[in-house]
Amino acid sequence: MNAPLSLVRHGTLALIETDNPPVNALAHHVRTALIDAVTEAGRSDADAIIIACKGRTFFSGADISELDHPVRTPGLLELEEACRLAPQPVIAVMHGSVLGGGMVVAYCADYRIAAPGTIFGMPEVKLGLLATFGGTQFLPRLVGMTAALDLLIGANPIDLAAAQAMGFVDAIGNLDSAMTMSRPLQKRPVRFMQLEPTQIALTQIDRFATGLDADWAAPHATLDAARIGVVQGLEAGLAREAELFERLRASRQSRILRRHFFADRALHKIGLAKETVLQLRATGGERQQLRVLGEALIDQDILSSAELVDAAIVRALGWPAWKADVMLD
């Protein structure tokens, strides 16, 4: 396979392992190889298929650089199909940080096992996106609408205990323990799980809508897709989710947030001087004053780029990250 991925037999088990450092990002070639491997394993006489990762973590999201362009097929809905059509149960064995696309891989599987210390999250709204590939549709079927929206709208990581309590994780263990399980497992594709009663689900969606900033597009899109899935069914929900994802991906707000993601990490490494914070606060948040000051900070080599200036403004003034566009042309 032309990817950092292997498919090997261990007795009656088919083991698929990915090794794509540093965080096993689900880049296009990795997605393609993973889908091909599950399909190939499904044609074998293995009793079960295990998906795992080498290195420090399970899949920890997408390759963010791919977000500059429309999603290339195959995406992870094709993985959901491959896992569903495989006659054997598919088991995701997780460790490290299971984020974004890693969560998708996990709910495409029939069972989920996680090592102690594993954390889980759906951070897409922080990039101005909604969780595509069934995040707004399959996740509520697996853990319920409230828990799903906590992950999708809150966008904060949860620990293993919380993930197990909501029903996302079936057992605590590692690859070795997964490979020695003796009890037979049955198929249980997430696509065929039932949503909670319609009115209960809609009430939860409405509750999450209360108090959301009207100008932050991604959470509202998430609730829109979830609502369509409840009212019109799974296929309509998936179609709406894909439509909204592409609209958000191409939006200025998502571009700002993706730019801020990298700039904020860089600013965290170099630090922000107290004097600079005070200078930024002294502008009172007036955007033209901030721009003039930002240009001066760049000229004086205090901050090296417009991206870093915008990250500093957001941090100093406590603005939401989607307002990190003062210096953006």
Structure description:
By secondary structure, this protein is an alpha/beta fold. Helix content is 47%, strand content 11%. The chain contains 14 helices and nine strands. The strands form two sheets. A six-stranded mixed sheet has the order 1-2-3-4-6-9. Strands 5-7-8 form a three-stranded mixed sheet. Strand 3, helix 2 and strand 4 form a beta-alpha-beta unit. The radius of gyration is 21 Å and the shape is globular.
Give short descriptive properties of this protein:
single chain; 329 residues; alpha/beta; three-stranded mixed sheet
Concise synopsis of the structure shown:
This protein is of the alpha/beta class and 329 residues long.
SSE blueprint:
Elements: E1 5-10, E2 13-18, H1 28-42, E3 48-53, H2 77-85, E4 90-94, E5 97-99, H3 101-108, E6 111-114, E7 119-121, H4 138-143, H5 145-154, E8 158-159, H6 160-165, E9 171-172, H7 175-179, H8 198-209, H9 217-232, H10 234-249, H11 252-270, H12 274-282, H13 287-299, H14 306-317
Parallel strand pairs: 2-3, 3-4, 4-6, 5-7, 6-9
Antiparallel strand pairs: 1-2, 7-8
Helix pairs in contact: 1-2, 2-3, 5-8, 8-9, 9-10, 11-14, 12-14, 13-14
